[in-house]
């Protein structure tokens, strides 16, 4: 039986780190106003893992946009690293992984807020929140 890959990452200053074991459940983009505002970018790119496959080390500061989720960032450098939801998933920002090009998004949410110059023809799109995406 093959071992599950372990992928590492963290914040810009190295204080907050993570290990993600195995493959993500799904990988996507979000164009919602909250993602745009907290990142200062036109969209957020992330990998969703089961929470029991991710180990977080270091201090974490949180902010909640909704009762269902927590935005988690490093209290030292302010880097966004991951979000937690009220369920059993954790959303890790693709830019927080130590290696680039690990994952390719398969869907995007809140396409009604997508910048007109951004073309993503191969992704399944949802005008607002996503439906069930495998």
Automatic annotation (TrEMBL):
<dbReference type="InterPro" id="IPR011057">
    <property type="entry name" value="Mss4-like_sf"/>
</dbReference>
<dbReference type="Pfam" id="PF04828">
    <property type="entry name" value="GFA"/>
</dbReference>
<feature type="domain" description="CENP-V/GFA">
    <location>
        <begin position="7"/>
        <end position="108"/>
    </location>
</feature>
<keyword id="KW-0479">Metal-binding</keyword>
<dbReference type="InterPro" id="IPR006913">
    <property type="entry name" value="CENP-V/GFA"/>
</dbReference>
<keyword id="KW-0862">Zinc</keyword>
<keyword id="KW-0456">Lyase</keyword>
<protein>
    <submittedName>
        <fullName>GFA family protein</fullName>
    </submittedName>
</protein>
<comment type="similarity">
    <text>Belongs to the Gfa family.</text>
</comment>
